[in-house]
Each structure stands twice: as structure tokens, then as C-alpha cells.
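Supplementary Methods. Inverse-folding protocol.

Structures were first reduced to a C-alpha cell string of length 914. This string, shown here, constituted the complete conditioning input.
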């Protein structure tokens, strides 16, 4: 088995279930027994209409033609289905001539069903759209829900995930109205499937658990097994193998001796095989796969057959049998192309590329992985919801990592062929794509031309979210039960989901958004021409399992370097941060210096000759986004008692999510009218009842909100007063003209002063000196904390959330987040750290200064005083750019004994335009 296959095995998944790898219209006829899985039963056309039509006095021609088509349909062959379609098309024409709208609607649905089963999705969609119009005219909500489910399934097949969500949500609403639990379960199951396809496995699991409760109550073991299969593969994705195995075994037990359960049995066998494959038990895995394969073929289920063939190929590849692996993969590929399953086609091509590379056929591997990535690039643009687009892209990052490694290995063999250039461009394509798109969107009026009712719904949800926050604060200011807070949290989560969906629908229906050109990642030539000058070098990193890479790019050269694998680099990063951030360890200066040098040698030494005294633009990857590059060093060796010379001493350092990000920032901010006012400063809010600024006569009703307590504990932050922040703010304001500033201290440093003050758009610099909380599980719970209590001691909402940042409209050249962990956020593969920095960039900031850890209050005040002294020089002094000012202030801190440790000054980084 190749090392590469072993290294990437955890990222490979090919499981099947009631939702995964099967259409809702499986190859089972409506005439089968009550054991037909609920997904099919929920969306079947209602044959009771047929019986009514056939029993009418004297009968009618359309009903007779329809019945003839049904008899052909029940034969279950593709040829018979084509003949049935011909009969139904005649029935449809007759029904329209007879004015029989009920027969017309029924015939349209069976035409849609059969075209779907024949994989004629466009024809199926056309029939279903006509059927939906008929059902709406008839007022048949049950049939409408069924058709909407079918339309959603077609959109899922095409990778139009946002449209699929819309259909499923509308269908779910109708099922609930008619109180049809089977249909409700079907829609919920389909929603889970889309979340799974997009890589959001936690959300998918939550929906599937809800489905399981519904299905158990319905009392059908085959249906229950279908849901357990889906839950099992989600546990597999979440790396919880024992839970997955338990779900699959429970499903298999339910299916014993059950008629018409071949499909679910095949799914379960396939999924059990996958679990044993994950454990490296290839023989047992193959045994399960080989039991599943004939069942798929027996029922003619091509999607399931393709999944099992793919899994057999992967098993053979890991057993070193490349020829047999390719044979299985090619069979799977033919089926996936025939069924139009593009996402799974990309996976199969990726697998073929891996085998071809290991067999010494790199050109064949390149051809396959390019095709796979092309599919991914196309599919991701079909997702209007930015969160889901990011999670989908994250789930496909292995493709990009594989392609980069393949290209760089070809570069070693043929250094003049330009493979390193392609690898760099692939690296740019693999990072911060959603950020590029939202930055482009931020400068377009995407709400122009959108349905006013949709815009009003967005505003209403925003108001409801704000009201819910106030309700949360009131609840948490008194004695509350766990049940009360859980109920409230669920209501807020529901509102947030509705808000995300509305924003996605605005994008989906906006003429302005549709007209936006998708920003493309830069090529090497564009990076050199649009980003770099003769004084600047780009350092871009890509971390891989076996090998990592560094590209050093100047305005006229490209040099690439091979670095150790991801784990070795992650260990070095973790060791350095642990020593630097622990007060007890920080005093062991020699040990800190040693870790500092080890990390520097890994990341910088290979490219040392390229750096000179040039400005560095650093595009990190993975763990490198937590590295304070300013504190690294190019010193060869350090004698005992000496300290390394930091990288910042000889050059400016700027960090970027990608080089392409800077190009979009520059392009979208060209021609922007400069802000007329200088600086707005918010500092020293009032957080707690023990604050001496509260009047002794005030009745304090404050209890810190639970989410802040939890976020603070996770971040290691104590939400106590920050006494040096007002000192920091006063020093800044002393350097500027008082009539061109805003200052909001204490009680005035409140959330409303930012969220509801349009005048902020007039200020060139925004400075926030307060607590920041980074929530790594849910970036929407990240934010800045302002006054949590008013002068009368009443609690108030003081938390500025991420979604509120996205609603700001700023013209700021600089936003300074003088708080803890403001440069961190949720780590999403392919996107990087999603947090406050991106929120302010979306709102219009050209650059953001943020922190990588819980910074020292007094040390930060000292650093910021120096920073602004360089930004706002006194008479006879020259003003510096923000990047140069940050460098100068960090050097000054390093030169002072009290502040020499990088802990006090290296945590702040400048992101964006230098």
C-alpha cells in the first residue's frame, strides 16, 4: 500500500444509505408492499386519483390510456418505462382535451417520476414544474409537497444545492400543514443529505436524529434501517467509528428476513465494509462489498453499485493491486457519468489519479485530478449560502492538496517545465475563495431588484435577533433554569438559520448578484504585476501530509521549497506557542529561544537568501495562521544568554488569507471617497457588578450571559475590567485633533454606538480596546464585548456579533482590534480563519490589526501608544504607513527589557493592504 494512500485514507468516504447515493425514486414500483422505504412512499403520485377517474360513469379515454401506461410501468424495465411514457403522453393530451385537471396532474407526476428513473432529469423537471402548477390550482398541498421533494432531488443531482434547500424547506412546511409524518421525515432526510454533501456533518446528523424519532413512531423496520444507515455514515464522517458500527449493525438486524429490503441491505453491507476498511481490515471489507454488489445489480440501482465498486477499488489500491483498482474505478466512473452524479464522479476521478500516480503515470494522474477539481469548482458556485459553500469547499481540499503535491513532484523531475507555477496557482485556488466572493459582493448593491417582501423579512429577522439577544440578557440576569436557557438557545439558532437562508435567497434572486463576475484566483504573472513591487516578497505555504511547500515570489522570480509534512510543522508551532504563552515557561528564555529557532528553521531558513530586507507578505496555511512571524528569526545560532534577532527588525510583515484577497481589496476600494474624520475610539467598557463606576445606589441585576461565560472559559479570558485601555485611548487621542474624533469610554462604549451609528462611516481609523472572544465552534458567536450594564445597573446586550459586523458600512483605512484573540476564529480548510478580521474587511476596512492570543493589558497599551505615535507624528516627524508603524513599535518594545518577550508585542499582526 502506498504511503500516500495511507496518509489520506481518513479523508476518503464512500458510504450509502437511504439518502446517500440513491434517488428518492429507487427502482421499486408503487405496487410493492408497505415495506417500501418511506422516502419513496412520501413522494409517490397518489394512485387513489387513478381509481376515481377509472370508476367514473362511462369511463374516459385519458384514464384508460393512463392505466395502460401503469401496467407497462410495473414491468420494471427501461424499455417498458419508455413505452409507459408514450402511453402517458397520450393520456396527458386527452386529459387536457377533456378538461380533466385531476387526471392531468396525476399523469404529469408519473411522467416526471419515470423520466427521473431513466435519468432524464431535464424532462423530469419540466413535467414536475407543470405538475406543481396544476396541484397549486387544485389546492392539493399533499401532492405539492411530493412534487417539491422531487424537484429538490433533481437540483441535488445537478449540484444546485441552494435551490434544493428551498424546495425541501417549502415541502417540509406543507407536510407539516397536512400532518403527514412520512413526508415530513422524507424532507428532513433530504435536507440532511444536502448538509452531508456540503460537508456540514454536525448539522446533517441533527436532522437525521430528528428523522429517526419520526420513523421509529411509524413502525416500519425497513424505513428505520434506512435512517440508521444515514446516521451511520454521518458518524463515519465525524470519525466516530464505534457509533457508526453500532448504527449499521442495528440496521442489518432490522432487515433480516424482510421482503423488499434488498436496497437497504445492500446499503448496510456497503457501509459495514467501509468501517472495516477504515480499520485496515481490507479482507473483511471486501467480503461485505462483494455481498452488497450483486444486490445493487439485482435491483438495478446504479448509484449504489457505483459506490460499492468505488470502495472495492480503494480496497484493491490499498492492497497494492493497481490494475484491479483501476478496473473497479472505471466501472464506477461509467455509472456516475451515466447517472449524472457529478460530486461522486469527482471523487472517483480523484481515486483514479491516486492510483495512476502510484503506478508512475503522473500525466494520467494530472488529467484525472484536473477533471475532478473542475467539477468541484463548478459545483461550489451553485451554493448561494456562503457558510455551506465554505463547508463544501473544505470537504474537497484533499483534491487540491493532492494536485499541488503531484505538480511539485513533477517540478523536481523537470524544473523548467513550469509545474511550480501551476502548483502556486492551485494553492491560490484552494484558499479563501468564499472571502474573495463576499468582498466582491460587499461593494455591489445586491439588494437592488430583489423582492421587497424578502428584504422586509431580512430586516424583520435582524430585529428579532436583536430582541432575542435582549431577552437573553434579561433571562440571564435572574435565576433561570437549564431548560429555559436551552429553549432560548434553540430559538436563537432557529432564527439564525432562517436569517442565513434569507440571505442566501437574496443572493439567489438578486439581478446584481447574478451579474457579478466571480473573482478568479490570481495567476503567477498577476501576483507579480498586481501585488508585488521590488521591495516586497510573497511567502505562500501549503501544508501536506507527507510534504509541505513554500513558494517565495518576487516581482520577477519564483522559487519553491519542499518542507516537512504537516504534523512536524504543527508540533513545532504548538511547542513555540505553549512556551511563549505560558507565564511559567516564558521565564525560561533559553528554552523559548530554542523553540523559536526550531520553528524558524523549518519555515524560513530554506528561503533565507530570497528575503533580504524586503517586506514580507505571508500567506499561511493551517497551523501557520497562528504563528507570530514577526517573532521568528533568521539568526544562524544563538549563544547562551543571547536572544534571536526577530524577523521584524529588518522588514515589515503583513499577513494575508491569500494573495488574491489583496487584489480584490484594492480593486473594490479604487475610487472610494476618503473618510473625512480621523479616529473613533471605544475603550474600557463596564462588564460587571463589581465595577467601581457603578453607583452604590444602583440596583445591579447583571449576570454574565452563559455564552460569554463559555466563550471566555474556552478562550482563557477573564471578563474583568481592562484598566489600561482608557489610558491607551487617552494617549491615542492626545495625538489627534479633538474635533475630528469620537471617544466612547465606560458606559458609552456600548454595542449600539457601533451597530447603530452611521457616522462611523466617516472615520478613517476605528480603534476598539476591549475584550474579544473567539468561538472556534461557531464563528457567529465570535465578537467584541462592550458594556454589559447601563449606569442604573440594568443589564444590556453588549455583544457585537459577527453577523452585525457584516451589516456595517465602513470607509475605514484601518481597524485596530486591541483585544484578545481578535485575529483568530473558526479554522476551515480552504478558507483559513473565519473571524472578526474578515467581518471588518467585508464591512469595508482596507486593513485590520488583530491579535493571535490573549494579550497583556498593560503591554498592549504600551504597544498601541507607540504605534499611534508613528501614525500621527509630531512636528518635524514623518508619518508612517500602518505596516511600518507596527514594525517600528514592535522593535521598540523588543528593545525594552520589560517588554522584550515576543509575548508582549508579536501577537498583533496587520492583515490586508500594507
Amino acid at each position: 500500500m502506498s504511503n500516500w494512500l495511507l496518509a489520506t485514507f481518513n479523508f476518503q468516504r464512500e458510504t450509502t444509505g437511504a439518502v446517500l447515493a440513491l434517488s428518492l425514486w429507487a427502482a421499486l414500483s408503487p405496487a410493492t408492499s408497505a415495506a417500501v422505504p418511506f422516502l419513496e412512499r412520501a413522494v409517490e403520485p397518489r394512485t387513489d386519483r387513478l381509481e376515481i377517474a377509472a370508476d367514473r360513469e362511462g369511463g374516459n379515454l385519458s384514464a384508460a390510456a393512463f392505466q395502460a401506461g401503469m401496467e407497462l410501468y410495473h414491468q420494471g424495465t427501461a424499455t417498458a418505462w419508455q413505452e409507459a411514457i408514450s402511453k402517458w403522453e397520450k393520456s396527458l393530451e386527452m386529459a387536457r382535451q377533456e378538461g380533466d385537471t385531476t387526471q392531468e396532474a396525476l399523469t404529469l407526476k408519473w411522467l416526471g417520476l419515470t423520466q427521473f428513473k431513466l435519468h432524464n432529469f431535464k424532462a423530469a423537471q419540466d413535467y414536475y414544474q407543470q405538475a406543481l402548477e396544476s396541484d397549486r390550482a387544485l389546492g392539493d398541498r399533499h401532492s405539492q409537497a411530493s412534487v417539491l421533494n422531487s424537484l429538490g432531488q433533481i437540483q441535488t443531482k445537478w449540484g444546485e444545492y441552494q435551490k434544493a434547500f428551498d424546495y425541501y424547506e417549502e415541502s417540509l412546511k406543507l407536510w407539516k400543514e397536512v400532518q403527514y409524518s412520512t413526508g415530513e421525515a422524507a424532507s428532513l432526510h433530504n435536507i440532511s443529505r444536502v448538509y452531508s454533501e456540503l460537508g456540514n456533518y454536525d448539522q446533517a446528523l441533527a436532522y437525521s436524529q430528528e428523522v429517526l424519532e419520526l420513523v421509529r413512531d411509524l413502525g416500519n423496520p425497513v424505513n428505520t434501517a434506512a435512517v440508521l444507515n444515514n446516521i451511520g455514515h454521518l458518524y463515519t464522517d465525524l470519525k466516530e467509528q464505534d457509533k457508526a458500527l453500532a448504527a449499521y449493525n442495528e440496521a442489518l438486524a432490522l432487515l433480516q428476513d424482510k421482503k423488499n429490503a434488498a436496497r437497504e441491505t445492500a446499503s448496510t453491507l456497503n457501509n459495514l465494509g467501509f468501517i472495516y476498511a477504515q480499520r485496515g481490515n481490507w479482507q473483511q471489507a471486501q467480503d461485505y462489498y462483494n455481498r452488497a454488489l450483486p444486490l445493487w445489480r439485482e435491483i438495478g440501482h446504479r448509484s449504489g453499485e457505483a459506490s460499492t465498486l468505488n470502495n472495492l477499488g480503494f480496497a484493491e489500491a490499498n492492497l497494492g493491486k493497481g490494475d484491479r483498482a483501476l478496473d473497479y474505478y472505471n466501472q464506477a466512473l461509467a455509472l456516475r457519468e451515466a447517472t449524472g452524479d457529478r460530486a461522486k464522479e469527482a471523487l472517483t476521478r480523484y481515486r483514479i489519479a491516486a492510483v495512476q500516480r502510484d503506478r508512475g503515470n503522473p500525466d494520467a494522474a494530472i488529467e484525472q485530478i484536473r477533471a475532478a477539481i473542475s467539477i468541484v469548482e463548478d459545483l461550489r458556485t451553485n451554493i448561494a449560502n456562503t457558510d455551506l459553500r465554505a463547508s463544501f469547499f473544505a470537504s474537497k481540499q484533499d483534491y487540491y492538496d493532492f494536485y499541488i503535491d503531484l505538480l511539485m513532484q513533477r517540478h523536481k523531475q523537470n524544473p523548467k517545465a513550469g509545474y511550480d507555477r501551476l502548483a502556486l496557482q492551485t494553492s491560490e485556488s484552494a484558499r479563501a475563495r468564499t472571502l474573495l466572493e463576499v468582498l466582491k459582493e460587499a461593494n455591489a448593491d445586491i439588494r437592488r431588484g430583489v423582492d421587497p417582501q424578502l428584504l422586509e423579512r431580512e430586516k424583520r429577522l435582524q430585529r428579532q435577533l436583536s430582541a432575542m439577544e435582549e431577552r437573553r440578557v434579561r433571562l440571564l440576569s435572574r435565576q433561570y433554569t437549564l431548560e429555559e436557557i436551552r429553549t432560548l438557545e434553540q430559538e436563537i439558532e432557529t432564527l439564525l438559520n432562517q436569517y442565513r437562508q434569507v440571505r442566501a435567497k437574496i443572493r439567489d434572486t438578486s439581478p446584481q448578484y447574478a451579474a457579478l463576475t466571480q473573482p478568479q484566483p490570481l495567476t503567477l504573472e498577476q501576483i507579480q504585476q498586481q501585488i508585488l513591487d521590488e521591495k516586497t516578497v510573497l511567502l505562500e505555504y501549503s501544508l501536506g501530509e507527507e510534504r509541505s511547500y513554500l513558494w517565495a515570489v518576487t516581482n520577477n522570480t519564483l522559487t519553491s521549497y519542499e518542507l516537512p509534512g504537516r504534523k512536524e510543522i504543527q508540533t513545532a508551532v504548538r511547542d513555540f506557542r505553549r512556551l511563549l504563552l505560558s507565564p511559567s515557561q516564558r521565564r525560561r528564555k533559553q528554552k523559548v529561544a530554542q523553540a523559536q529557532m526550531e520553528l524558524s528553521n523549518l519555515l524560513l531558513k530554506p528561503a533565507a537568501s530570497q528575503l533580504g530586507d524586503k517586506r514580507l507578505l505571508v500567506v499561511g496555511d493551517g497551523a501557520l495562521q497562528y504563528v507570530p512571524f514577526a517573532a521568528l528569526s533568521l539568526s544562524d545560532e544563538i549563544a547562551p544568554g543571547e536572544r534571536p534577532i526577530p524577523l521584524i527588525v529588518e522588514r515589515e510583515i503583513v499577513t494575508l488569507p491569500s494573495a488574491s484577497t489583496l487584489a480584490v481589496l484594492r480593486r473594490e476600494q479604487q475610487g472610494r471617497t476618503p473618510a473625512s474624520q480621523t479616529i473613533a475610539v471605544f475603550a474600557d467598557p463596564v462588564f460587571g457588578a463589581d465595577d467601581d463606576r457603578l453607583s452604590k445606589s444602583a440596583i445591579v441585576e447583571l449576570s454574565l450571559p452563559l455564552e460569554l461565560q463559555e466563550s471566555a472559559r474556552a478562550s482563557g479570558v477573564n471578563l474583568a475590567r481592562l484598566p489600561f485601555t482608557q489610558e491607551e485611548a487617552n494617549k491615542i487621542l492626545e495625538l489627534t485633533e479633538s474635533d475630528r474624533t469620537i471617544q466612547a469610554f465606560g458606559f458609552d462604549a456600548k454595542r449600539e454606538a457601533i451597530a447603530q451609528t452611521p457616522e462611523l462611516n466617516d472615520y478613517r481609523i476605528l480603534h476598539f480596546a476591549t475584550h474579544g472572544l473567539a468561538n472556534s465552534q461557531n464563528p457567529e458567536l465570535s465578537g467584541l464585548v462592550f458594556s454589559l450594564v447601563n449606569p442604573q445597573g440594568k443589564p444590556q446586550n453588549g455583544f457585537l456579533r459577527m453577523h452585525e459586523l457584516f451589516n456595517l458600512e465602513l470607509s475605514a483605512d484601518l481597524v485596530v482590534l486591541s483585544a484578545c484573540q481578535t485575529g483568530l476564529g473558526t479554522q476551515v480548510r480552504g478558507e483559513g480563519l473565519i473571524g472578526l478580521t474578515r467581518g471588518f474587511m467585508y464591512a469595508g476596512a482596507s486593513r485590520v490589526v488583530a491579535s493571535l492570543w490573549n494579550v497583556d493589558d498593560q503591554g498592549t497599551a504600551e504597544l498601541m501608544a507607540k504605534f499611534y505615535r508613528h501614525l500621527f507624528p509630531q512636528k518635524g516627524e514623518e508619518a508612517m504607513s500602518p505596516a511600518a508603524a507596527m514594525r517600528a513599535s514592535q522593535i521598540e518594545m523588543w528593545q525594552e527589557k520589560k517588554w522584550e518577550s515576543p509575548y508582549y508585542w508579536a501577537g498583533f499582526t496587520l492583515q490586508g493592504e500594507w
